[in-house]
Amino acid sequence: MSEAHMFVAIPPRPAPRRIRGTAGWLRKNLFSDWPNSIATILLLMLFAWYVPQFVNWAVISAVARPDVEACRAAAHAGACWGVVAEKYRIILFGRYPYAQQWRPLVAVLLLLSLVGLSTLPRMWRWTLLPLWLLGMTVFVALMGGGIAGLVPVPTSLWGGLPLTVLLSVGGMTLAFPLAILVAMGRRSALPVVRTLCTLYVELIRGVPLISVLFMASFMLPLFLPQGVKLDVLIRVLVGIGLFTAAYMAEIVRGGLQAVPRGQAEAARALGLGYWKTHALVLLPQALQAVLPSLVNSFIGTFKDCSLVTIVSLYELTGALSLALGGDVVWRPFFLEGYFFVAFIYWIFCFGMSRYSVRLEHRLARGLRRN
Asked: In this model, does residue 1 exceed pLDDT 80?
């Protein structure tokens, strides 16, 4: 055997070290190489310079009581959280009658409880649907009144956090099943169905949400039969649902295209029809694959509800403008009010993102077991 064809053993390499403890985590994630180390050091320097100033402004030198003179004396060297203490009821409930504001508080707690129950895997059964129907009925009854001795309150006075939660949850509830149907329609073998779904998606995605809300509020009534009137809240809710469904349909369609073709062929070989194939085989895999994108769409819908102010529906940000717009005393401290509203938005959005991560881990464990 020639030397060129002789077997030469590769010298053994040391086994990789298991990273344990805080020092190992820091070395792996923050100081793995010199570019990562430089970026970490620069960020630490930025935090060391900025965080103490923010803590001093937001906590140490802040004024928490609703005392406008104390806030003026602070001269913006400290945050004036007194504006939140003074205006929080208007920010949270908008123009809803002051004496009846216990009703939107109970209504929003009920709706958030339903959302929380829906996140529990043991609640994923058919009994959840009638529970949602009952909960939404109670929500509307509490907000609108007119029954059980409750004072009637028109939807034009609904606002603040209850309106934001209603529009976001209602819009997502309308959008999700419609998005699935449109995604399936775009992959349909029927040219008419495929063309109609494509036109719907391209038409809605070609305009901003603010124009959809404007058309739903001001132009849609012009096309309704004489004598037929739809409440502005219903029109806005439908507009948000249709807009969200167009974007969500493309996400679902991408998930369906990612499922291997052999899955559908195997389902047909087992005798499953079109709808059962999608419901039992294709859609579960597709939705799992695009779960982060779906949650991102939900978060975007929740934040986009702030645009309904253009049609005189005052959700959280609109209610803040309503609270400070006509008050020259507290208006100079609008920044603290926006921090308060931003914190509420962050709680909801961060909660949705963390639930998404938790659900991904749960589904990944199921795949590993299989």
From this structure: no
